[in-house]
From TrEMBL:
GO molecular function: heme binding; iron ion binding; monooxygenase activity; oxidoreductase activity, acting on paired donors, with incorporation or reduction of molecular oxygen
InterPro entries: Cyt_P450 (IPR001128), Cyt_P450_E_grp-I (IPR002401), Cyt_P450_sf (IPR036396), Cytochrome_P450_Monooxygen (IPR050665)
UniProt protein name: Cytochrome P450 CYP749A22-like
Binding residues annotated for heme, in chain numbering: C90
Cofactor: heme
The keyword Isomerase is assigned to this record: no
Family from the record: Belongs to the cytochrome P450 family.
Taxonomy, superkingdom: Eukaryota
Gene that specifies this protein: LOC111317737
Membrane topology: Single-pass membrane protein
Keywords of this entry: Heme, Iron, Membrane, Metal-binding, Monooxygenase, Oxidoreductase, Transmembrane, Transmembrane helix
A cellular-component GO term for this protein: membrane
Localization (cell): Membrane
Lineage, opening ranks: Eukaryota, Viridiplantae, Streptophyta, Embryophyta, Tracheophyta
Pfam families attached to this UniProt entry: p450
Length: 144
């Protein structure tokens, strides 16, 4: 389930870009960032970069994470940052992944799920990333 959650938030990170302001002039590689300039960390672009993930970057392949995040990212910590990196990363990360696993486990004990033919795939990045028309699912009870 961890692999499935990781692959889902790789392709569709709910927080799809983060803004940072430079506190004091800093050099990053060849670039000099003046004080107060703002820049966006485009995690969605990093998660969809074929140079980092390979030619199958747009495919849903949970097995990329079979040997953990470090192996999947070839030890590039910035390649997969759905909860961001460093001291200001998401404090809810463990809570939300545990909650997702519990909710999914409870649902999957009672139902199998298929996608409704009414579903239209249209991810919309508007503050957070969301399905523009919702996600219509069909629940099939496992027990009568
Ligand atoms: C799938 C769900 C979630 C995702 C993808 C997510 C992602 C993120 C990201 C990317 C940041 C960094 C934002 C930035 O640096 O600009 C962040 C920060 C934060 N998140 Fe989450 N988050 C999620 C759920 C939660 C939940 C459930 C909580 C609380 C229970 C939470 C609490 C926080 C807090 C307090 C911060 C600010 C941390 C700081 O600035 O020191 N998040 N989250």
């Amino acid at each position: 389930m961890t692999m499935i959650i990781n692959e889902t938030i790789r392709l569709y990170p709910p927080v799809n870009g983060m803004v940072r302001k430079v506190g004091r002039e800093a050099q990053l590689g060849k670039l000099i960032h003046p004080t107060n300039i703002e820049f966006t960390i485009p995690n969605m672009a990093l998660h969809h970069d074929p140079e980092l993930w390979g030619d199958d970057v747009h495919l849903f392949k949970p097995e990329r994470f079979a040997e953990g995040i470090a192996k999947a990212t070839k030890y590039n910590a910035a390649a997969f940052i759905p909860f961001r990196l460093g001291p200001r990363s998401c404090v809810g990360m463990s809570f939300v992944t545990t909650e997702t696993k519990i909710a999914l486990s409870m649902i999957l004990q009672c139902y199998t799920i298929t996608l409704s033919p009414a579903y239209v795939h249209s991810p919309l990045a508007l503050l957070t990333l969301k399905p523009q028309h919702g996600i219509q699912l069909l629940f099939h009870p496992l027990h009568e």
